[in-house]
Design a protein that fits this description.
The protein is of the alpha+beta class and 147 residues long. The protein is built from two helices and seven strands; from the N terminus they run ααβββββββ. Helix content is 17%, strand content 31%.
């Protein structure tokens, strides 16, 4: 016996919109600029901390130091850059997943940092930022006394 379940048009529209967003944000077959909007893929970052510093590590293969612009304002870190488009010659792409063009990633830092002492190093396509915590943001050991 064949089932004849009809889907309400609003439900069908919702499913189509969900499918559209899922494809756009999880299947990056679009150009680098579109992926930048999602904040995925092109500038993956790791953020961690110890008692004195925050660390941000960003993947920027193919980007030279002079193509990067890193700023800290308040508790906001901005990493801007440009990965130039590589000329293909006479060929045609079968798959194009590597992002290219301009990118920007803005991170809200979890604690106040001393912007004047931020250090940046680029090695093998990985940008490592060391952001010293402001003295007021560092943990303080409180000695407990008995009375």
């Amino acid at each position: 016996m064949r089932s004849t379940i009809t889907v309400h048009p609003i439900q069908q529209l919702r499913e189509e919109v969900d499918r559209l967003f899922t494809n756009v944000f999880t299947h990056p077959t679009v150009t680098g600029a579109a992926r930048l909007v999602t904040g995925r893929g092109f500038l993956a970052v790791n953020v961690w901390e110890d008692s004195d510093n925050l660390f941000v590590e960003a993947e920027v293969p193919g980007v030279k130091p002079e193509q990067l612009d890193v700023t800290v304002v308040g508790n906001e870190l901005t990493i801007k850059g440009q990965r130039p488009e590589e000329p293909l010659g006479d060929g045609a792409f079968h798959r194009r997943e590597r992002g290219q063009g301009s990118f920007t990633r803005i991170l809200r830092l979890s604690t106040e940092v001393t912007a004047d002492n931020v250090r940046a190093a680029l090695n093998d396509g990985v940008l490592l930022l060391t952001l010293p915590k402001a003295e007021a943001a560092k943990p303080r050991k409180i000695q407990v006394k008995t009375e």
